[in-house]
Structures are given as C-alpha cells and as structure tokens.
Write a structure and sequence with these properties.
Helix content is about 45%, strand content about 0%. The chain has about 60 residues and is mainly α. The longest helix has 11 residues, at about 45-55. It starts with a helix and ends in an 11-residue tail after the last helix.
Length: about 60
C-alpha cells in the first residue's frame, strides 16, 4: 500500500503507460471482487447512463 507522498507523486508525475487494457479481463476481475461493472463504448453513452442514475442524489467515489 502506498503512503500519501507516494500517491500524490504518482498523480502529479504519472508514468506514461501505453499498454492496451484487456477490458474483458478487467471487468471479470472487478466482478470477481464483488464490484458491479458498467462498460460503455463511448463517453456519451456513459454520460447518458450517469445522468439517468444520479438525478437528485449524492455521489461518492472510492473504495478501500
């Protein structure tokens, strides 16, 4: 687990990584860890979904 300084440094000075993501493998790993996954081909699809889900609600993002 990274400490605060390491985390801040990683955000401020990200390393370029052009390795393609295997989205199917990623989704399966998240689901195996009890996450509910929604994947969208475009940003517009994601925005539409989120607008429909979060109307008049508070939203928090995070997990530990």
């Amino acid at each position: 687990m990274a400490n605060t300084e390491t985390t801040i440094n990683a955000v401020i000075n990200p390393e370029i990584n052009e390795t393609p993501i295997d989205i199917e493998k990623t989704i399966k790993a998240l689901e195996r860890n009890k996450f509910v996954v929604h994947y969208f081909e475009t940003g517009a699809e994601a925005i539409s979904y989120l607008k429909g889900r979060i109307q008049n609600k508070r939203v928090a993002i995070g997990d530990s």
